[in-house]
Design brief:
This protein has 7 helices and 12 strands. It is α+β, with helices and mostly antiparallel strands. The longest helix has 33 residues.
């Protein structure tokens, strides 16, 4: 399962530091004297949204902001590691599934190799066990149980012969024809033959009770256990193979990528925002305003974004606020609110995450 970690790449601190300096001056009052000359607009359509307010010498509020896509996903690495390959750098266009950068996965590759070798060894063992099963089906009994009927018959005849000889030795011993030692040796041979005969009788009963089938079943169970172990090992291997995706930062959709970890051999701790991907078909502005100025912002009011990417001639873009986030961000002794702006007209391409200043003219009541 493919995991995504979503977070804004640039936190508010970067922009709030600049906003704090600006907010210290308060709202600018554009109450110029009637005799003062008005500065000429660098381009007619650049100040279209705020020209009316400027003519009325309306006060201006502003916040520091940056450009981002209408949708953005921040991609984090799950495991700590070194960057080994960078395929796309910041501002490069990517397609869904493109690998932006890769982390060192030597440890993972070692585990995968060991798992594959283990599976190969188990499969060889399984093949041997199956051959053993075929042999067992042809000759299921161990060597001690083979020809059990003939062995039983031979043991029975030996036991009867030794019994007869023992009786003869007994009479000879009674007549003092042989020594007691010879008689005792013959008795020992008889008792040993009797024990062997009884054992073979019991073995015959075991064979008759299906001992050959039990031996075959035992081999079959060994094969089943080995097959189960191979299946488990393959499942573990599949999980290890799936882990590869966590060592690769891939684009979740088409867009523009911003890479933070673009240095080969650079080290990233687990959970580092390695890259972000923006849908740039429609761009928006995130800007931070002092809480004293947020109350003047109205949805749909016109403003302008003065981009640091361009000079004064092409640096103004008409914007419209459409959302004020309720959560405040504290920086020092100041509180700021995030305001989202829609770019009405992008007469020059704005670079993702380029910064600038959003200016709003507040009409006096």
């Amino acid at each position: 399962m493919r995991e995504k970690f979503v977070r804004m790449r640039r936190g508010p601190a970067l922009f709030l530091s600049a906003a704090l300096l600006i907010a210290a001056t308060g709202c600018e009052k554009k109450n110029e004297d009637n005799g003062e000359k008005k500065s000429a607009s660098p381009e007619k359509k650049e100040a279209k949204a705020s020209s009316a307010a400027e003519k009325k010498n309306a006060p201006m509020i502003y916040g520091i902001g940056y450009v981002r896509g209408s949708s953005q996903t921040t991609l984090k690495n799950k495991y700590a590691g070194f960057v080994t390959k960078v395929h796309f750098y910041s501002q490069a266009r990517v397609k869904k599934g493109d690998v932006i950068l890769e982390y060192d996965d030597h440890e993972l590759r070692t585990k995968i190799l060991k798992a594959k070798n283990t599976i190969l060894e188990l499969e060889k063992d399984l093949h041997r066990r199956k051959l053993d099963l075929e042999i067992k089906k042809l000759d299921p009994l161990p060597s001690d149980y083979r020809n059990i009927l003939w062995k039983e018959f031979a043991a029975e005849q030996l036991q009867k012969r030794l019994q007869h000889e023992t009786n003869v030795y007994k009479r000879l011993y009674a007549q003092r024809c042989i020594s007691e030692l010879d008689y005792l040796r013959k008795q020992e041979e008889y008792h040993s033959a009797t024990a062997d005969f009884k054992r073979l009788v019991q073995d015959k009963e075991r064979v008759s009770g299906g001992l050959d089938k039990l031996h075959i079943q035992a081999v079959e169970k060994d094969i089943e256990a080995l097959e189960l172990e191979i299946a488990n090992r393959k499942a573990e291997l599949a999980l290890l193979e799936e882990e590869k995706k966590y060592y690769r930062i891939a684009a979740p959709f088409d867009g523009v990528c911003i890479t933070n970890s673009d240095t080969v051999n650079g080290y990233d701790a687990a959970g580092t925002a390695a890259a972000s991907v923006h849908k740039d078909k429609r761009k928006i502005i995130y800007a931070y305003f002092d809480e004293a100025d947020v109350g003047f912002i109205r949805e749909g009011m016109k403003g302008r974004f003065r981009s640091n990417q361009y000079g004064l001639k092409h640096g103004y873009f008409s914007v419209t606020p459409y959302e004020v986030k309720k959560n405040r961000t504290t920086y020092g002794d100041k509180c700021f609110f995030l305001v989202k702006f829609r770019i009405d007209e992008e007469h020059h391409p704005l670079r993702i995450e380029s910064s600038g200043r959003v200016e709003l003219f507040v009409e006096q009541e």
